[in-house]
């Protein structure tokens, strides 16, 4: 569904005070913007990244739009068809997860559908996994998305590496594109929700990886800012921007210097609550664990 057909995010809802960083300025290694990047990663572990003024950023926005359409077509398949590709955690987390298959933090079964697609599969680093024909036909789009998002993540890692005075290329070397890892492209579908807005559809958590690049069209994402641990706040989707989120692996890799973002997903505010949720996330994790993700929520 196009962003033009969705109800607007309400203007009277408190939102997270996330910094808005410019990819263009970061590409030029602007000192002020690089310092703001470090501050965001130390303080809240989450920030907006404006992609609009760069070729690579606009390319990623276009690819994200294409993958939104792919996700909608994927989840429109019959349940019988999707269950041919179901994954069996913890032995594998690539493939399909149906609604009501995983309990949340209170023991209630979740309402989301997932489909996880292996980076190593898409990049032909490992034998291909079974998948629906429509995903096989869109492998070039997935490949472009993974390459493009990884290039942006490598830039962020390089700047953080320098700001933290780590040995040259320490962080980028941990996130090699061709490393055999559990990196994945993830699609998530959330149904229209009727429960109270404080009831999470994705329980409070941090990502296990390093960096995630999130594209979302509905405003159900909430973060827990530091020093405000009693109040969850919405993260408003901004056109032309991605949301970058740090995970546990980045905290470990920097010996606790950087912060993992604590987040959850709840019913979107206002008129958006009645919409079917789709979003996009690309994440990059260390070669030892995982690397590129796309999340639809």
Task: Give the SSE map.
Layout (H helix, E strand, L loop, with lengths): L19 E3 H5 L3 H13 L2 E5 L4 H21 L3 H4 L12 E3 L15 E6 H4 L10 H5 L1 H25 L6 H4 L10 E7 L11 E4 L5 E6 L4 E3 L9 E2 L6 E6 L1 H6 L9 E3 L11 E8 L13
Parallel strand pairs: 1-2
Antiparallel strand pairs: 2-10, 3-4, 4-5, 5-12, 6-11, 7-10, 7-12, 8-9, 8-11
Helix pairs in contact: 2-7, 3-7
Keywords:
single chain, 297 residues, alpha+beta, Jelly Rolls, 8-stranded mixed β-sheet, 9 helices, 29% helix, 19% strand, globular, metal-binding
Describe it for me?
The chain has helices at 23-27, 31-43, 55-75, 79-82, 119-122, 133-137, 139-163, 170-173, 248-253, and strands at residues 20-22, 46-50, 95-97, 113-118, 184-190, 202-205, 211-216, 221-223, 233-234, 241-246, 263-265, 277-284. α2 (31-43) crosses α7 (139-163) and α3 (55-75) crosses α7. Helix content is 29%, strand content 19%. The chain is globular. The strands form two sheets. The chain has an eight-stranded mixed β-sheet with strand order 1-2-10-7-12-5-4-3. Strands 6-11-8-9 form a four-stranded antiparallel β-sheet, with no helix packed on it. The chain has a single domain (3-284), classed as B-lactam Antibiotic, Isopenicillin N Synthase, Chain (Jelly Rolls). The two termini are 12 Å apart. With 297 residues, it is of the alpha+beta class. The chain contains nine helices and twelve strands.
